[in-house]
Amino acid sequence: MAVADGAPAPEPVSAPQPRAAEPPHAAEAPEPARAAEPARPAPEEAPQAPRAAAQPPSTPAEAGFRLPDPALVSRTMADVAERGQRIVAEFLRRQGGAEGPPNPDPLNIGSAFLDMTTRLMTNPARLMQAQIGFWQDYLTLWQNTARRMLGGAAEPVIAERKGDKRFKDDAWRENEVFDFIKQSYLLSSRYVTNLVHGAEGLEPKAAQKVDFYTRQFVDAMSPTNFWLTNPEVLRKTAETGGENLLKGLSNLLSDLERGKGKLRINMTDESKFSIGENIAVTPGKVVYRNALMELIQYSPTTETVLKRPLLILPPWINKFYILDLRPKNSFVRWAVSQGHTVFICSWVNPDESLAEMGFDDYMRLGPYAALEAIEKATGERQVNAIGYCLGGTLLASTLAHMAQKGDDRVASATFFTTMLDFEEAGELGVFIDEEQLQAIEAKMNQRGYLEGAEMADTFNMLRANDLIWSFVVQNYMLGQEPFPFDLLFWNGDSTRMPARMHSFYLRRMYQQNDLVKPGAIELDGVALDLREIRTPSYVLATREDHIAPWKSSYRATQIFSGPVRFVLAASGHIAGVVNPPESGKYSHWVGTGPAPESPAEWFEHATEFAGSWWPDWQRWITAQDRSMAPARQPGAGALPALEDAPGSYVKVMAGD
């Protein structure tokens, strides 16, 4: 981090909902996140800066061009000199402390591209054909541009894909020069990507890596990323006399300072958010704490509640409050309002002292410890459980462990965007090969953990245009201050990963795909077999998930032995999950009858419903057991309240 049911369904809609951008999980990624959603998603769809008039001015007079303030220029240059010296000194100090020489190919892409080039050269006829087609399109573009300059009309040779926000400015269509630049870029991009796709005989992992990094290069070379070929930046420069570029330079230096010599793009105005004050504010208490997690119990808002408490296991790649951002989009607050006694694990942000914590420790000190604490707090032995992404992988592992021991304390299981079968792990698989794993492990062995910012960089690359280049343009070229956005704040609040646990997760699950092999993984002395899971399960996947591809999450329907309801939500890893009914956004698909082996076949026969999947889940969960009990106040049971929610662990930043 991902069909038997008794839940009634709402009326279907006839047309799919439009796609929505989202950050990675950031850690996961966040969606970014911006978004990632978060992966950090990512973040989903960040607010765009206001756009100026479309047509770029052709002369200084038309532009209202003014010279920059000399005093401002002097102050900025003096500031640049002073801060630049500090940044360079810090960078050199950190480089001097690194062990061993730098790796010239840390991402291990050189051999893959060499193999691709070799295979392309073995088919010169195909290469020549591709080049001829490219130049034919280019000549047509020249002719069309000349026709437009003479006052005629011409259809574009190539158009950007629908929803490509890079070319929103009207000048990309209305001005002949910028239209030519845009189409030249799109033609070149198509030529390069088609050429890479056409390399026959590449090993699948190498082909995936070449395709991914080719797209990274293509995205980086977009004309929107250079001030001389971006009409919006040129217009802003003319209007401000270049003050936008001076401000952008200051923003760049600030981000280098934040990263201590490494660029750390500021995606949102972090000063506008404070955890526990306007983020993660659902009332509750921490009722239990151990070395890995704090267990939060939330205060009820109904007089009676469902008898079974609800335990949520979020991923520890990100912080739990993605499910409790603000009241309007908080899944936690909504679940409380539906009559659930909600408990959530707030994972610690580990440091070097927890380097030896493993996946089995997360199971023992996570769900197992939470089950014991919940029974003390409420008197209830059985719970409904939710696992999100990596938290879902942990939940499935725990259920398989419990199945071998005859433990039935988890009465129903819900999986949000969870992978159990990692055979088709999506684009994250690009970063999982032996050379890169060894490099990651070397860093972790030196520190005791994987730095959260390094993982965030990985997730941001999955959505580079949304989570990297858009901020390069806004922050550094337009000189704008980041917009306050809760999802991007969460996406930037990265977490570390203990060395032993993370190495196990990457090798045994991502690289070797051992979790779906019966008996291949052993936790706390018990061999796991996911086929032994007979717990009623609700499996939610999201259609545009870059972190847990929905067809991989679907595999759970073929693995579990108990009844499974599979639901596919529109949008991505964060936005598809954090989608309150009141928003009226997106849609979801539900199948009927037993789930077929093929996810494509399931989707072909599934029915689409408008809006959020949250009410569908509520109908399903209450169908499992409708028994009610008086509302439970945190701290009123055998477990006293330790402190107010959201607790202390969530407030530890990765840089602390």
From TrEMBL:
- The record places domain AB hydrolase-1 at 338-579
The record's gene field reads: phaC
- Which intervals hold domain Poly-beta-hydroxybutyrate polymerase N-terminal? 164-335
Tell me where on the tree of life, at the top rank, the source sits: Bacteria
> Sorted alphabetically, which InterPro entries does this protein's record hold?
AB_hydrolase_1, AB_hydrolase_fold, PHA/PHB_synthase, PHA_synth_I, PhaC_N
**Species this chain originates from:** Pararoseomonas baculiformis
UniProt keywords (A-Z) are: Acyltransferase, Cytoplasm, Transferase
- Point out the coiled-coil segments of this chain: none
Region (Disordered) location: 1-66
Q: Know the name of this protein?
A: Class I poly(R)-hydroxyalkanoic acid synthase
Q: Which Pfam families match?
A: Abhydrolase_1, PhaC_N
* Compositionally biased intervals (Low complexity): 16-56
Location comes to: Cytoplasm
Its ancestry begins with: Bacteria, Pseudomonadati, Pseudomonadota, Alphaproteobacteria, Acetobacterales
